[in-house]
Automatic annotation (TrEMBL):
Residues 51-182 form the FAS1 domain. Gene3D superfamilies: FAS1 domain (2.30.180.10). It comes from the Bacteria. Transmembrane segments: none annotated. SMART domains: FAS1. InterPro entries: Adhesion/Biosynth-related, FAS1_dom_sf, FAS1_domain. It comes from Pontibacter anaerobius. The keyword Repeat does not apply. This is Fasciclin domain-containing protein. Coiled coil: none annotated. PROSITE patterns: FAS1, PROKAR_LIPOPROTEIN. Residues 1-18 form the signal peptide.
Length: 185
């Protein structure tokens, strides 16, 4: 009985406090919350139950720390956290290490953000394309407006010569892990 009475008092107190605040104060608080939610974007949604999206999967991979840093620097986290669907060709850290010395560091500078975005968007196709549907010579239009060419030979699938090492389904598409960075022409 004591617990029920304590709960009732707490609820009544909360209701009285809410009633005492002016409509203007309530509106201001609502605006603050809405502004914070809007500023954070889709990537700020906390969901520990659903399948992870392409950004969350990449962020949980120790082999994709360079890619994740690049996506954050290019301010593409929210875009790639949206519903999609996306097919992402995700270069490993080792793939980035194959680029000439200083390339990655240079692209991570604020003044190179548009170049970085162009390169990252060249790794994304809008739609879900699983590895088993690729055909040799198939051409795909990427988000940046460029095109990539798929290769299929002896069970090995490539994109512009980069080998697909693994494919990971996500809540908003599929990630194809690749062994090279794709560079737009």
């Amino acid at each position: 009985m004591k617990k029920v009475l304590s709960l009732a008092v707490a609820v009544a107190t909360g209701a009285m406090l809410a009633a005492c605040s002016s409509p203007e104060q309530q509106t201001d608080i609502t605006r603050e919350v809405q502004h914070e939610e809007a500023a954070a974007g889709q990537s700020a949604v906390q969901d520990d139950e659903s399948q992870k999206n392409v950004v969350q999967v990449a962020a949980s991979s120790p082999d994709h720390t360079t890619l994740v840093t690049a996506v954050k620097t290019a301010e593409l986290v929210d875009v790639l956290s949206n519903a999609g669907p996306f097919t992402v060709f995700a270069p490993t850290n080792e793939a980035f290490n194959q680029l000439p010395a200083g390339t990655v560091e240079g692209l991570l500078k604020p003044e190179k953000r548009s170049d970085l975005r162009n390169i990252l968007q060249y790794h994304v196709y809008v739609g879900v394309l699983n590895a088993d549907i690729f055909e040799d010579g198939q051409s795909l239009g990427q988000v940046n407006g460029g095109r990539v060419t798929m290769g299929v030979k002896d069970g090995k699938v490539t994109v512009n010569g980069a080998t697909i090492l693994a494919s990971i389904p996500t809540s908003n598409g599929v990630i194809h892990v690749i062994d090279k960075v794709l560079l737009p022409q």
